[in-house]
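Support request, please re-run this one:
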Amino acid sequence: MSGHPPRDIAPGVRCVPVRSPTLPPATHTNVWVLGQHTLTVVDPASPWADEQDRLREALDGMGRVERIVLTHHHHDHVQGAEALAEATGAPILAHPETVARLAFDVLPLGDRFTTDTGDVVVRFTPGHAPGHVALQAPSGHLVAGDLVAGTGTILIEPDDDGHLGTYLASLAAMRDLHPVALLPAHGPVLDDAVHTLDTYIAHRHMRTDQIRRALAPLASATPTELAPRVYVDLDPRLHPLAARQITAHLVWLAEQGEVEARDGRWFRT
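Re-run finished. Output below.
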């Protein structure tokens, strides 16, 4: 078992980290629990029986599970949902775009729901995934899913319907809400929410500028060829992952008319 105990963050906001098959350096997914006695459980992520048992034991000590909510469809967020639903009888809810991508029984999530500590507002935050949502708790905390990370980085994966421009818009929209703190799926609570979101936006624009500069002296390049030019200090073993991230930026630049792709290579226009 992972041994990470439940944590109280605010009245009606608790966290049970569970070991999950997520991307390094993260090793766990935070299962956020909203409500004091009637519980909304967000992203029960672990496929492993020992972690599922530990999560159920923690929840049994808190109250009754009323609903299970998924922030998006990625495997390190959903793999314990069916087991928890079977054990508790609670329905699994998600954005319709997420529902369409899952092979098990999931119901569409509305724009808000009520807990015994107040209303939770569902914020549509696509970009990392088409059906990604964040949850604005009555306390003002924002359950952020993979909008941000306290450990590691957020991958925008074009081959999995990730979209950089949409992701940037979601970051800006959540910044404008001025949340009390960000509750990410991986890593610690991010207390300076507005600064964190501004930093994420600035970082993505910085990376886009690096890609522009790396491509400028070349007739053309593939994302794999650009990776060591852009991520100069990165372990070469991670260049394939970096190339996937570079592709997301190139797609965004293509949408703005700055580059174009032909036969797997990218050219300045």
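The chain has a mean pLDDT of 96. Residues 11 and 178 are 19 Å apart (CA to CA).
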